[in-house]
Design brief:
alpha+beta; 5-stranded mixed beta sheet; two-stranded antiparallel sheet; 7 strands; NTF2-like_dom_sf; Cyclase_SnoaL-like; Ester cyclase
Length: about 170
């Protein structure tokens, strides 16, 4: 049996996933606690590594910059206490460079656009405090997405494109 509080938390978690694809800044302010931490931001830009709505909104912009038609299909959502888990699929088309960063927030790898669609299964875990998300973790099928986009195994031509794209990205950051 679902309580009103449990249903509300599930609704907020699902809204936060859809906000990644098409939410505006105000949506993120209403969903994320000022101290919210994203435990999944190791490859994301430095602007995504800050707490609260600022970091999560930066992650959304990063995802949107690399993909067109970004959307999420929600398959299941469950809650227990202050934790909510949402099983979903992220869909899009790889239309622009996807820049990955290392632990020192330096450009590590750049995947030039392939123009290919992808569908990546994901499970997102949220912890709530004061009615807003305070922690987020995710398990994603990154390897499956990489295979769909032709990142692995890379062709020699794609490896050259990656090196050139990385050089351009590093120049923009410097």
């Amino acid at each position: 049996m679902t309580t009103d509080i449990t249903a509300d938390l599930i609704s907020l978690a699902v809204r936060s996933i859809h906000a990644m694809a098409n939410g505006d800044r105000a949506d993120f302010d209403s969903l994320y606690h000022p101290l919210a931490t994203d435990r999944e931001n190791r490859v994301q830009p430095p602007s995504s590594r800050v707490p609260g709505a600022d970091g999560f909104y930066s992650t959304a912009l990063w995802l949107r910059a690399a993909s067109t038609g970004l959307r999420y299909d929600i398959h299941h959502a469950l809650a227990r206490g202050d934790l909510v888990v949402v099983n979903s699929t992220m869909n899009g088309t790889h239309a622009a460079p996807w820049v990955m960063y290392n632990d020192d927030a330096q450009v590590e790898t750049v995947f030039p656009p392939t123009g290919k669609p992808y569908a990546m299964t994901q499970s997102h875990w949220f912890r709530f405090e004061d009615g807003r998300i305070v922690e987020h973790w995710a398990n994603r099928d990154d390897l499956g997405m990489a295979a769909q986009l032709g990142w692995i195994p890379p062709t020699p031509a794609y490896l050259v494109r990656m090196a050139l794209a990385k050089r351009r990205a590093v120049r923009r950051v410097s």
